[in-house]
Amino acid sequence: MIPSPPPLPANDEDSAKRRQIVEGARKVFRELGFDAASMGEIAKAAGVSKGTLYVYFADKLALFGAIVTCELREQGIDKLTIDPTEAPEATLQKFGQSYMEMLCRPTGGSTIRTMMSIAERMPELGRRYYESVPAAWLGRLADYLRIQVANGALAIDDCDLAAAQFMLSCQATLFLPFIFQVTPAPSSERIADVVASATRMFLAAYRR
């Protein structure tokens, strides 16, 4: 069972200390990976003693769980507003741009790589991340597509499949080179070009 991160302390000073520790841990995990990171290295990076570190977090797993919680807030679909009355072309372009800028954030790749490396050993943590980020984005797009099918704008038999197809098309030439550190995070302009191509392909297949 993956431990839930401890609740935020009520005291502002304690809350700031907790954030300081989480940021230190994020830095160490990014540089060393989960397995190589030690609580001593994390305490050093956070500028606290090991005793203080253990006051807030029982072990590395609890710390990584707190980092995942922060990532889920930063990558949450709730930040994207979709207007169900907006035309598919505009919505797909906006959705794809937001999705790829979230997925390929310069500082976000290390968390995804770490998550992928430990998901086999800690499937609950991997499932939590998947359901809160990729699946949540896919579900929001699929719901929009169902509205457009009902309105007669699109002809789609399986909206979940179509949403996944669009999201993967938006990743083309961008995500894999980024996540494997072959290229830096793509620019907004490059993302816009790829998303525009994905949008054209999608509408060619599904526009009524």
UniProtKB/TrEMBL annotation:
Residues 38-57 bind DNA. Signal peptide: none annotated. Pfam families: TetR_C_7, TetR_N. Residues 15-75 form the HTH tetR-type domain. GO terms for molecular function: DNA-binding transcription factor activity; transcription cis-regulatory region binding. Keywords: DNA-binding, Transcription, Transcription regulation. This is Transcriptional regulatory protein.
